[in-house]
Amino acid sequence: MSGTQTTYLYDAYSMFKFTLYWTLICVVGVHLIAAGYACAIQWKNWKIIWVVPLIYAVFGGMEAVIAGSVTGGL
Q1: pLDDT digits over 22-33, tens only?
Q2: Distance CA 39, CA 51 (A)
Q3: Cα angle for residues 60, 56, 30 (degrees, 5° grid)
Q4: How far apart are CA 11 and CA 2, in angstroms?
Q5: CA 12 centroid distance within chain
Q6: Which of 54, 14, 25 is nearest to 38 (CA)?
Q7: Which residues, given as ranges, of the chain have pLDDT below 70?
Q8: What does pTM read for this prediction?
Q9: Among positive and negative, which fits the CA dihedral 38, 39, 43, 49?
């Protein structure tokens, strides 16, 4: 048979990992888009602007780990 294979999350650890990974992908992605916009606007300060995506990614990652852990743990 052709088609998609359905997978269910039954145990708590799988649910936790799924929630954590997708939260990381979404939150860090949004932060990197915002960092790209900030870099585009402030390109005149090119000597220091390269730090912005790194800072946004780190803080977005920390937020995602906390949010994903809380949501996945519930």
Answers
A1: 988 999 999 999
A2: 9
A3: 60
A4: 27
A5: 21
A6: 54
A7: 1
A8: 0.72
A9: positive
